[in-house]
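INFO batch 0412 | record 1 of 1 | parsing
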Amino acid sequence: MDRMDMEILSCLRENARLSASKISRKVNLSVSSVLERIHRMEEQGIILRYTAVVDQAKLGRPLTMVMGVSMESPQYYAGFEQKILEEPDMIECECLTGNMDYLLRVTAQSHEHLQDLHHRIAMMEGVASITSYYVLKNVKDV
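INFO prediction complete | emitting tokens
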């Protein structure tokens, strides 16, 4: 990875749909070199996937909550992770070190929906405690 690769990544993070020709103009490199570098970063696993950033509020899900989940024991991790993968309201789930085992980002249509989701997570096998935070606004999204 060099400075040019970082500039190309920056362009793709801003808009993954940018054409190679537009990226080449932004970074002052030939289109073939840009394509070669992107392909190399994909092969090396630096670029994992291309995705869309979705405005959840426009999909009828204006409420976002971050939940810290602590488990009773690591023996419950695999089962918990499988259940979370099946939850359509989950935006993110990360396994952590420290006081919490998982950090979840969820979206919902209403406070009642959030309450129901909170209850479903709390009832999952092995969940010891949940600490929840309402998200007031998103300051930065990578």
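INFO post-check: DSSP finds five helices and four strands in the chain.
INFO record closed
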